[in-house]
Design a protein that fits this description.
Layout lengths: L5 H7 L13 E6 L16 H12 L4 E7 L9 E8 L7 E8 L5 H9 L14 E6 L6 H21 L4 E6 L11 E4 L3 E3 L4 H9 L7 H4 E4 L4 H14 L7 E9 L5 E10 L2 E11 L5 E3 L9 E3 L2 E11 L8 E2 L1
Parallel strand pairs: 1-2, 5-6
Antiparallel strand pairs: 1-3, 2-6, 3-4, 5-7, 7-8, 8-9, 10-11, 11-12, 12-15, 13-14, 15-16
Helix pairs in contact: 4-5
């Protein structure tokens, strides 16, 4: 019997991966050596006080995503890294980091509880500028993340080392969605998601150089934006190139019909020469909406709806000029 791999199926179906980034307000990343069980926080090294805290957070529906992270030295490290990435309000270029180096993993829960009460300032936490790239290697959750995530983690660490990027850290991560796009990654502090990565595309993302059109294949979207708006943001990346990654953005859905076949979206952008407002009509694209098994363990196929930018305009800029929306 052939083993089914959902990422192979997604690639063969030609699925467009844009719009699949999870829109999260806060990420709490806890260093914990693998192996991890299918439900990562049930793993042997995760203490009970942290499991209880996570259940409380879920019960109270707080907008927090907990993930396990590790690197090649986590199993022998004499401290535990705790990273909290919180989305910036308003016009934003991503997430704000607070980092704690703790003596052991049992201290994570009390530190997070204090953080939830607003008990920490920047003086208590490290806020140095680092780039933390998470690669899902959670093979017990989905076999594609072992088959494609583990080798890619090895390649990614080699690329960072060869480029001598001292401020970039590569982490193995527990499941954060989209295993059918393995190898898949989140790039902090931006909070942008990528999938179907290879060494060439990863090096371009690291250095923000090279052919911008490669993002058509590997960009899942920006986690600070609603899923449908991620499609519009990719169009603007392709238009502006790598400079786009230096801009601050906020986005919202202005209007949508009941079946969400049509969405009016707005993206505000702060560039060096001022503020701009882009408006677009997004429509459900039946030609791109594929029916497939969304994970290796899925027993049934499901339809994954996709959106396309139907019309698009620069509604205003700092000079309050207006241009008419036209089809792209």
């Amino acid at each position: 019997m052939n083993t089914f791999f959902c990422s192979d199926y997604s690639r063969q179906a030609g699925e467009d991966i844009i719009g699949s980034a999870t829109n999260e307000q806060t990420y709490i990343l806890v260093e914990c050596p693998p192996p991890w069980t299918s439900e990562g926080f049930n793993s042997r090294w995760v203490p009970e006080n942290l499991q209880i805290l996570i259940k409380e957070v879920k019960r109270n529906k707080l907008p927090i995503k907990f993930l396990l992270i590790a690197n090649n030295v986590s199993h022998k490290a004499d401290s535990t890294t705790l990273l909290i990435y919180q989305r910036k309000e308003g016009l934003s270029n991503g997430y704000r980091k607070q980092e704690f180096q703790l003596a052991n993993i049992e201290l994570v829960a009390p530190v997070v509880r204090k953080w939830l009460r607003g008990g920490f300032s920047d003086y208590d936490a490290q806020t140095s500028v680092t780039r933390d790239i998470l690669i899902c290697t959670h093979g017990s959750h989905d076999r594609c993340c072992a088959r494609y995530g583990n080798p890619f983690y090895f390649n990614a660490t080699s690329i960072v080392s060869s480029l001598e990027l001292d401020n970039v850290r590569i982490w193995k991560s527990s499941h954060f969605g989209g295993h059918r796009f393995a190898p898949t990654a989140i790039d902090f502090p931006d909070g942008r998601y990528y999938g179907a990565l290879d060494q060439e595309s990863f090096q371009s993302i690291l250095t923000r150089t090279g052919d911008i059109t490669l993002l058509k294949k590997v960009y899942r979207g920006w986690g600070i934006l609603p899923n449908s708006l991620q499609v519009l943001e990719r169009e603007l990346i392709l238009r502006y190139g790598w400079d786009w990654f230096n801009y601050k953005v906020s986005g919202e859905i202005i209007q949508q019909n009941l079946d969400k076949n049509m969405i009016l979206a707005e993206l505000n952008v702060e560039k060096p020469d001022g503020l701009y407002c882009y408006q677009a009509k997004l429509v459900k694209d039946e030609t791109q909406s594929v029916k497939l098994r969304a994970s290796c363990n899925a027993t049934q196929e499901s339809v994954c709806p996709k959106y396309a930018v139907d019309s698009f305009c620069l509604a205003s800029n700092k000079l309050a000029t207006y241009s008419k929306c036209g089809s792209m």
